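Reminder to self: tokens first, then the designed residues, so the page reads top to bottom the way the pipeline ran.
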């Protein structure tokens, strides 16, 4: 991974030294997308560069997202907008994103198209997320479209591009990436309900308060009687008391809404493993299993 970090820094330095200085204050994350590229396409100059490009685009999207969400922290540290203001965060995002595209154009058309198409969809996904957070959403199709675009689409395009780069079955790896992204987001939505603040490293039960009716909430609404539906409606976008938090958690377990969400994420994960079974890639298998076969 040091190779990727160094490549990202070289790319940013080629644009501007002060952008690199700013970037050094951004939190770096798990580099999931870069790891996927190296696990699928192997380690070479083109895979390192593609991994750096995708991570720069992803970092840009998070810089902009923290401005949109007015979020002052990112992965437990101060966000760039918290440290230097919204304008700086947006402009640094623009630099990362446009340099990423400049480097992307030297790749084959299948790759540059897959990634650019994903970024357009990512932006639509972010808009959907904002709009869907205005009111309670009980429409599963809209939820799945939003998490596909906001989270899964770039992981799908990343895995697909890595397969192109190494002459592997692009569609099989695209399905792996798509389902990895969908399962990741569903599990993230489950953990917001089942984990404590301490385990999460951020406040739990934050989604509903922020207006997000994630999959477990959609399932829960489908199963509640009229009285409980009214109670849950009244808690939407509200700062929850201890008793209200316990009420939501109990109903989530009793109704099976949490379990149903976990089972769907696991089904998507196993489907993805089947799609790439021919490749006998134990690293990719482990990435998926660690995500779906964990404690919830
Ligand atoms: C995080 O979601 C947000 C995303 C994964 C996508 C954000 C996309 C854009 C802002 C549009 C694309 C822009 C560029 C420059 C490429 P979240 O808020 O649910 O998650 P969080 O808790 O990590 O903030
Ligand atoms: Mg956000």
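Designed residues (296 positions):
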């Amino acid at each position: 991974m040091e190779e990727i970090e160094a490549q990202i820094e070289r790319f940013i330095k080629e644009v501007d030294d002060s952008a690199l200085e700013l970037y050094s204050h951004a939190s770096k994350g798990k580099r999931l997308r870069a790891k996927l590229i190296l696990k699928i396409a192997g380690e070479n100059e083109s895979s390192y560069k593609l991994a750096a490009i995708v991570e720069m685009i992803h970092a840009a999207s998070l810089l902009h997202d923290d401005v949109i969400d007015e979020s002052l922290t990112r992965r437990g540290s101060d966000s760039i907008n918290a440290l230097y203001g919204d304008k700086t965060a947006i402009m640094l995002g623009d630099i990362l994103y446009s340099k990423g595209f400049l480097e992307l154009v030297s790749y084959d058309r299948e790759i540059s198209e897959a990634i650019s198409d994903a970024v357009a969809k990512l932006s639509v996904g972010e808009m959907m997320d904002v709009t869907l957070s205005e009111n309670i959403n009980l429409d599963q199709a809209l939820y799945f479209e939003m998490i596909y675009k906001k989270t899964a689409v770039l992981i799908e395009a990343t895995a697909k591009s890595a397969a192109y780069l190494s002459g592997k079955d692009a569609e099989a790896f695209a399905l792996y990436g798509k389902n990895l992204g969908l399962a990741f987001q569903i599990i993230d939505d489950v953990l917001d309900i089942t984990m404590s603040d301490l385990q999460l490293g951020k406040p739990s039960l934050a989604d509903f308060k922020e207006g997000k009716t994630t999959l477990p909430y959609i399932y829960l609404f489908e199963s509640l009687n009229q009285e409980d539906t009214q109670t849950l409606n009244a808690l939407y976008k509200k700062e929850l008391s201890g008793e209200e938090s316990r009420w939501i958690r109990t109903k989530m377990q009793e109704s099976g809404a949490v379990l149903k969400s976990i089972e769907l994420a696991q089904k998507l994960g196993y489907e993805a493993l089947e799609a790439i079974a021919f490749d006998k890639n134990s690293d990719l298998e482990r990435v998926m299993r660690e995500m779906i076969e964990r404690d919830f």
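DSSP finds 16 helices and two strands in the chain.
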